[in-house]
Specification:
Elements lengths: L1 H18 L1 E3 L3 H5 L1 H4 L7 H13 L2 H9 L4 H10 L4 E4 L4 E4 L6 E3 H20 L24
Antiparallel strand pairs: 1-4, 2-3
């Protein structure tokens, strides 16, 4: 466990050195919505895709808030209305400058996560079938008959 944490920290540090850091806790993703709000002149299908991406950018903040016992929608609105770089410090329950508070993510990791999610979504949309695991139905019959009753 300790070795794994050290390896994760080393990887995150390398990624931060390569592309820098951004406000963490999903803050930078939520604040990126503002770019998508600027009417990109897209066709109907493309605009639908952008709307889906726009909504998905809220999820990290929403989930972090919910995990901390807060209403995700309320926190999303607070972060959306905040200045650039300000976000929700779930541990202390308040809005803070994320970088000053040390709540940061490597830009490379954030960018890669978004690119990979888009790639997977595109693959699912263009694939005519999806393979999933079907949960096995348990045979909920009664216990076996004792030998002396046979």
């Amino acid at each position: 466990e300790k070795k794994h944490r050290i390896e994760d920290a080393l990887s995150a540090t390398k990624a931060a050195v390569e592309e820098g850091i951004v406000a963490g806790g999903g803050t930078v993703l939520l604040q990126a919505q503002k770019v998508l709000d600027k009417g990109l002149g897209l066709e109907a299908d493309q605009a639908t895709g952008v709307a889906i991406i726009r909504r998905s950018l809220e999820e990290p903040v929403r989930q972090i808030a919910a995990n901390a016992g807060n209403e995700g929608s309320v926190i999303v609105e607070k972060v959306r209305e905040a200045k650039a770089g300000e976000g929700w410090d779930a541990q202390n329950g308040k809005m803070v400058d994320m970088v000053k508070a040390g709540i940061v993510d490597p830009a490379k990791v954030t960018r890669s996560a978004l690119q990979n999610a888009a790639s997977i979504a595109a693959m699912v949309l263009t694939t005519e079938a999806v393979v999933t695991e079907v949960p096995e139905k348990s045979n909920s019959g009664g216990p076996a008959m004792p030998p002396d009753m046979m």
